[in-house]
Design goal:
three-stranded antiparallel β-sheet, 4 helices, Nitrous oxide reductase accessory protein NosL, four-stranded antiparallel β-sheet, alpha+beta, N2O_reductase_NosL, single chain
């Protein structure tokens, strides 16, 4: 189960990935995909970057596997790159379109959008399967995305 967190409105201020930062889930160099970056920052300042929301959620849903020694309660901020504006926004506040025809660096992806209206428009324009919120993301959905079952 994902950790609920108080809402932070607007963009979040998190560091950008450097050229050698790799996604802890897939190992890709994250800075190569600035339009897909997601970031977790812990209270001690430690940061993990991801090449998309899908890998971010895989990480959050199984911290013992992807981040041994890190605890969900020590997470300070989580940001995802909003599809249209390319700004890093609070992952808890984003609307995610699942099952669209837009592919990220790791294939089928959760597409983060800032407003419900943007998500509804994106859903229609890109043949999405649905709109979900942070707390609704589940491992089964991520597996279906990896397997291309939302098409």
């Amino acid at each position: 189960m994902l950790l609920a967190q108080p809402a932070i409105s607007g963009p979040v201020d998190l560091p950008k990935p450097g050229p050698t930062d790799t996604c802890p889930v897939c190992g890709m160099f994250v800075a190569k995909y600035p339009e897909w970056v997601a970031t977790v920052r812990y209270k001690d300042g430690h940061v993990h970057h991801f090449d998309g929301a899908k890998d971010l959620f895989k990480y959050l849903l199984d911290l013992p596997k992807w981040a041994p020694g890190h605890q969900a309660e020590n997470i300070d901020s989580i940001g995802v790159t909003e599809y249209y504006g390319l700004a890093l926004i609070d992952a808890h506040e984003a609307f995610y379109v699942i099952g669209s025809d837009v592919l990220g660096p790791m294939g089928h992806e959760l597409i983060p959008l800032e407003t419900k209206e943007d998500a509804e428009e994106f859903l229609q324009d890109h043949k999405g399967a649905g709109i979900i919120r942070f707390e609704q993301v589940a491992e089964e959905m991520l597996k279906k995305l990896d397997d291309g079952l939302f098409e």
